[in-house]
Every structure is written in structure tokens, then in C-alpha cells.
């Protein structure tokens, strides 16, 4: 009897194999329904889980990096936080700490010299023509000149370079602020070139 259409049929036996259904159409229907039964899905799920090996430290005691609470890591899960809230709080703390570190780095890398002490090193005529750049609320000279880092502060912070190297006059060029803004945080010399410029300054 065909399990799909209840029709009688003669099963052709080929070795140890015999047909289960009376036709190809019934066969497709039979095996499709069989594949999608809850029992088969459960069986497949258990089989897949059996192939997965628990990650290192699963089920062991761990300490949350944020709240320092001790918790057990679930199987097949790798995490260092006990909850999503602790993970978010940690990310916010790291971002705030990095921002403070960058601000401190910018302060140390800021130019503190007077360009007029080195008249042969800088284009003072450009400065006489345009004046220093001043924001709208501090004099309003938006087309003025500013001191630009040849090797940028941003790149120096990322690479962990001594900020005092970046503050050296050899790392400075006078640039009209509009051009400086277009340059953004891009370095136009390498670290080795900076060290060579300092050596020859």
C-alpha cells in the first residue's frame, strides 16, 4: 500500500532496496513530509549539536569585565560579559577613556614655538598676507593661516608615537585654513621622514 495515496502497487525489489511509494510524485510528497516533521527536525538538531564542540571555558566560572560578577559561560557561547547591558557599559567606558587619552595626546603634540623665531623655515609672507586663522567667535578670519602637522596627530596617536616629536617645528607647515580643512587628518610625510626633518632642522 502506498503511504501517500493508499493505492496498492507491486514493489520492485532491487537487492536489499524496495520502493516505498507507488510513483515518483508520491515519493516526492512522502519524503518531503518526512523531512519536515517535528521528529525529524529534532533529530537533526540533536545530531548537529553533537558535532559542535563546546568552546574553551564553556560551563566554567568567569568574571564579568564590567560588574565583576561571577557567572558560568553557557555552552557554545564565548563572552566576557554577563549581560548585554554590561557589554554596552564597557564599550562606552572604553570609548570615553580613548577620547580622554586622545585629548591629552593632542595637548602634548600641540605646537608651542613661535614661527617668527625661525624665519628661514616658514613662509612668513603668507602669514603677513592672510593673517592668522580665527574662528567666527574669536576674530572671524576664516581665510587666515594655521599651523598644520605634516605628520598628523591622529596617525601619531594610532601608532603610539611620542607626541613631543609631533610638536617639533620640523613637523609644522603654514597652511591657509581652508586648505588645512581639506587635508583633514592625513599625514603627508612618514615617521622616518619626520625624524630626518627633526635631525636636519
Tell me what you see in this structure.
With 201 residues, this protein is mainly α. The protein has helices at 24-35, 38-51, 84-109, 124-130, 153-159, 163-166, 177-183, 191-200; strands spanning 13-14, 17-18, 61-63, 70-72, 145-149, 172-176. The chain has a two-stranded antiparallel ribbon. A hairpin with a 6-residue loop joins strand 3 and strand 4 (70-72). The relative contact order is 0.08.
Labels describing this entry:
201 residues, mainly alpha, two-stranded antiparallel sheet, 8 helices, 6 strands
Task: Walk me through the topology.
Layout: E1 13-14, E2 17-18, H1 24-35, H2 38-51, E3 61-63, E4 70-72, H3 84-109, H4 124-130, E5 145-149, H5 153-159, H6 163-166, E6 172-176, H7 177-183, H8 191-200
Distance between the termini: 98 Å
SSE order, as H and E?
A: EEHHEEHHEHHEHH
As a whole number of angstroms, the C-alpha radius of gyration is: 36 Å
Profile the largest sheet.
2 strands, antiparallel
The residue fraction in helices comes out at 40-55%
Coarse shape: elongated
List unreliable stretches of 5+ residues.
Answer: none
Structural class: mainly alpha
Task: State the helix count.
Answer: 8
Q: Quote the beta fraction.
A: 5-15%
Number of strands: 6
Please, what is the average pLDDT?
81
Q: Give me the side-by-side strand order of the main sheet.
A: 1-2
